[in-house]
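Changelog-linked ticket: S-adenosylmethionine example.
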Amino acid sequence: MSSALNSIEAHYAQQDLEAAVLAALRDAGKDPDHLRPEDLAPIDEFHICGRKATLELASRISLDGSMQLLDVGSGLGGASRCLAQEFGCRVTGLDLTREYCRVSGMLAKRLGLDSRVSYRHGDALEMPFEDAAFDVLWTQHASMNISNKTRLYSEMWRVLKPGGVVAIYDILAGTGGVVHFPVPWAREPSISFLDTPQQLRKTLEGVGFEIQSWQDTTDKGRLWFRGMGEKIHKQAPSSIGLHLLLGPEFRTMAQNQVRNLEEKRIALIETVVKRPSM
Ligand SMILES: C[S@@+](CC[C@H](N)C(=O)[O-])C[C@H]1O[C@@H](n2cnc3c(N)ncnc32)[C@H](O)[C@@H]1O
């Protein structure tokens, strides 16, 4: 693996994450042997607006139990399990952070979803899948760590069936200047690559995708994160939360996220694009 990829994995990886998650669940009064998806919500939907954003993006596409879906940069797998549970589809999660793939598999098993979801360790720029293997592609808050966007969306095109769609929810560059670091996806600028919304559109169309829907959800994210930031500022962190993934810097990262949104240094875009059928 290249040193750039190692740095990204090092940013996310935490030692003994499985043990830490199980201990935090017990501390929060949850029974790890009888978990419900909502018990994991504070940790496994690692994007602005959490599960609400996942359900909103899902509402923009048609999903059913016959579909094979790929979640690119699946993190701890919250979206993959949510989509498998809500729509019955089969979901593969691909992620660069080996520990996340391992813990995602463990959580899926504990929720009885392991027949419908599975996780692969790998790089979104060299996906370990055949051409046209999936009906739908899905990605949330992963492209910020990827500099070669043309390669990323070309790989998505390759593994998607003609006529299939890609559902994207991403953090992009705003108009307010450079980002305040650390942020949840990077402790410093060398692993952060934000395109503007205009650049994203151009790259997607350049690869051949047709834009089906395009929403700027920055204001929604600002409101949601403002509430989160205030809560985090006032309260000691609860035992189960993103600090388990990001360590003690999580508070500063969350506060910077609020500032970056307030000062328009980042923007949020939700878009669905289609690979035309031939
Ligand atoms: C902020 S987390 C979001 C995780 C998940 N999509 C979610 O919303 O809960 C970003 C994820 O992207 C993954 N990632 C970053 N670069 C990647 C790459 N080149 N290939 C695959 N995954 C990548 C990271 O390992 C991390 O799990």
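Closing comment: Example verified and attached. Residues 177 and 265 are 5 Å apart (CA to CA). The radius of gyration is 18 Å.
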